[in-house]
Amino acid sequence: MDKKVPVSQRAIMARINRALAKEGKALRISRSNAEKSNFGYSFIVDVNRNVVEAWGIEDFGKLAKEIGVIKDFEEVIEE
Length: 79
Fold this sequence. Notes:
The chain has 79 residues and is α+β, with helices and mostly antiparallel strands. It has a domain at 25-68. Helix content is 35%, strand content 29%. It is built from 3 helices and 5 strands. A 3-stranded antiparallel sheet has the order 2-3-4. A two-stranded parallel ribbon has the order 1-5. A hairpin with a 4-residue loop joins strand 3 and strand 4 (51-55). Helix 1 packs parallel to helix 3. The chain is globular and about 40 Å long.
């Protein structure tokens, strides 16, 4: 059997933010309805230039795999 180790969404977000911090970026969660309508649930900000670089990020597991902060034997669980 291929058992996957569960990893919480909060832990994945922390891993993503640590990886992005090396590039001067951060993952942010939309707080207001206006932010949600403009950027979606979450977005990536270049903190040095104060510019939104990516928006509409819904799947943290997919993003984590793209930037290499989650292993093949791990899976993101909803909290």
